[in-house]
Amino acid sequence: MEKTEFSKLSADSIEKIKALLDVFPQRRSVVLPVLHIVYEQFGYLDKEAIAEAARICDVAKVHFEEAADFYTMFPLKPVGKYLIQVCRNISCSLLGSEELVDYLKSKLGIDVGETTPDGLFTLVVVECLGSCGTAPVAQINDKYYENLTRAKVDSILSELREKA
Amino acid sequence: MSFQPFLLRPIEDDDRLDVYLKHGGYAALRKALKQFTPESLTEEVINSGLRGRGGAGFPTGRKWSFIPKNSGKPVYLCVNADESEPGTFKDRELMLKHPHLVIEGTIISAYAIKCNHAFIYIRGEFAEEARRLQKAIAEAQAHGFLGNDILGSGFNLKITIYRGGGAYICGEETSLMTSLEGGPGYPRVKPPFPAVSGLYGCPTIINNVETLSNIPAIVNNGSEWFKSIGTPRSPGSKIFCVSGHVVRPGNYELPMGITLRELLYEHAGGISNDRNLKAVIPGGSSVPILTADKIDVHMDFESLAEAGSMLGSAGVIVIDDATCIVRAAYIISRFYQHESCGQCTPCRQGTLWMDRILHRIEHGRGRPEDLDLLLDICDNIEGNTICPLGDAAVPSVRTSIKLFRDEYEYHIKHKKCLVETVARFS
């Protein structure tokens, strides 16, 4: 399937999806890699893009939808340019992750699950990120920010604002 | 002579192939292909006594030997890089700093089980780790360590990285395979065991990242050398992940069997902010809690079991005396409730009820009968589920009540913590 003017997937995404087609002994294994590609392009799982990817792969759309529902790391709706995911599990909590969340809430003026009015930041809490030795930890888009303090949060937020 | 780490080797830039090669990298692969048959290599790993580092501690070589001979089906190797057990962060460091060690271990292990297509199932959040592995794979391929006719041996191998989607359950081996096949990660009933019928219905071995990273050293130095480290039944080194209230949290690769006291006080610098130790969860959030008076225990599979806990993934979570144990248990049980796949009723409902009851105790709405109710729920989850997630949700709740019942009773009666908690975020 060639890219048409109605395509929501970028040419780059389509190319990446096509490159997956012969990688696995069974075609359905493309499901999670495709969700990653769609998430990378959109920042969330765009439904029309998934339907389009399903057609390219010749795998039933329902398999992608089922996976999108099961796996929690992909937002199902658009989020801010920067998705801030704060770990709330035991090791981070022992080192103040609740206070870190409160600090982010006050700095950004939003609650957990909300996006700043300028569309820059979305704040969520997540379970263990596997970086307990450098707690408290947050993941912003695909990058880990470790050993967080108030001063570090301040500089990260201003750096991201500048980059935006 | 003091112990020299051979997994987390103190080598700068070991993620670079030239550095890895300079320090003997891929010599083990050369040796394995030249001097061993798959059968003799499996025998060597059996003799080494290496046990799985993901949590269960099953003997690695024996696992390999369960693959049926001449099934006529392809054999698959899945490297479990889904590191998600709270308190555990060792595989992440191996993949970031020593990706070629992981890849070399994978190639040698694939040779031993006659596998031509290996998968590294890595948790979705580990984006940088996946990039490092991908780069290492490309470099290994370019140097003839991967691909067709590896180093002229006639052995072919392709390694595919598969990124997960943020589900703790996918670290469970049957769930990992279901996920890799493109489905939601629901665990499967065993038997059939993966070695007989696993990925795509074919014989499959699932090994943890740290487990496979031990293989090059075993090939290079021999099984006798490996057995000279650690304890007779838990040979080798172990990467202990120390987190929580210590001066120097981090990964420490040390011989199996060192004491928890030595790990905490000599390596991790002792308890932070001059507070006192209250409790330790020594093997990730899924294992029973130990009180401070138990830290002379040796850190190996047998000794921790005798002490009433488990080595698990060796995620050592350190808790000081300014911590409310009720809150700690609530946070851990909230996690299992969140990660239960919902397939088995005892786990789905049990973790939900535990989370709700602990939430109400923590928030001053607990009832005196709640403690026995929680223990009753523990009994009804344990052993009644397809996979170990249900069992994993039980120990923290059960032992926190058994060991710190006074804190729970105080919480229920006075609607606040018995201990004076402190601010932690600076």
Summarize the structure.
The complex is a heterodimer of chains A (164) and B (426). By secondary structure, chain A is of the alpha+beta class.
Provide a descriptive summary of the structure in words.
The complex is a heterodimer of chains A (164) and B (426). In chain A, β3 (138-140) and β4 (143-145) form a beta hairpin. Chain A has two domains: 11-70; 82-163, Glutaredoxin, CATH 3.40.30.10. Chain A is built from seven helices and four strands. Chain A is 45% helix and 11% strand. In chain A, α1 packs antiparallel against α2 (31-42) and α2 crosses α4 (61-70). The two termini of chain B are 41 Å apart. Chain B contains 18 helices and nine strands. In chain B, a hairpin with a 5-residue loop joins β5 (237-244) and β6 (250-255). The model of chain B has no long low-confidence stretch (mean pLDDT 97). Helix content of chain B is 42%, strand content 12%. Chain B has a five-stranded mixed sheet with strand order 6-5-9-7-8, sandwiched between helices. A four-stranded parallel sheet of chain B has the order 3-2-1-4, with helices on both faces. Chain B is globular, with a radius of gyration of 22 Å. Chain B is an alpha/beta fold and 426 residues long. In chain B, α15 (345-362) runs parallel beside α17 (389-403) and α16 runs antiparallel to α17. Chains A and B meet through α2, α4, α5 and α6 of A and β3, β5, β9 and α14 of B.
Q: What is the topological layout?
A:
The complex is a heterodimer of chains A (164) and B (426).
Chain A: H1 11-20, H2 31-42, H3 47-57, H4 61-70, E1 82-87, H5 90-94, H6 97-108, E2 121-126, E3 138-140, E4 143-145, H7 150-163
Chain B: H1 17-22, H2 27-35, H3 38-48, H4 60-65, E1 76-81, H5 90-97, H6 99-112, E2 117-122, H7 127-142, E3 158-163, H8 173-180, E4 204-208, H9 209-213, H10 215-221, H11 223-227, E5 237-244, E6 250-255, H12 260-267, E7 277-281, E8 290-291, H13 301-306, E9 315-320, H14 325-339, H15 345-362, H16 370-381, H17 389-403, H18 405-414
